[in-house]
């Protein structure tokens, strides 16, 4: 199975093969700032199954709570958040689900974990059945 995605303007297109290793929401302050929203929804896939097919995303590095680098990739034209590579997860790519095509942004309505719930905004409730992690 191949899942495709893109930025809002279409300058960057990407894809991954297979099923995500994890489907997670992240409520950390970094994700809130990066997206301008209350959290990110993420498909975590092996880096070997992920590829950029069109365009050249820009990257912004920030140091996470772990002291390791979180490399955020985005479209330099429209600013869409695309994916993240975390030094603490060197074999995985964290794809921002909102850019996935064909309704895949829903992540199959199966969120396995919520990360940084200590930073979750007060008007959101936990997802039933999802593992609740105070941090990563």
TrEMBL record:
- Matches recorded under InterPro entries: CENP-V/GFA, Mss4-like_sf
Q: Which GO terms describe its molecular function?
A: carbon-sulfur lyase activity; metal ion binding
| TM annotation in the entry | none
Record keywords, A-Z: Lyase, Metal-binding, Zinc
Gene3D superfamilies per record: glutathione-dependent formaldehyde- activating enzyme (gfa) (3.90.1590.10)
User: Start and end of every CENP-V/GFA domain?
Assistant: 3-117
Q: Which family does it belong to?
A: Belongs to the Gfa family.
Protein name per Swiss-Prot or TrEMBL: CENP-V/GFA domain-containing protein
The taxonomic lineage of its organism, from the top, reads: Eukaryota, Fungi, Dikarya, Ascomycota, Pezizomycotina
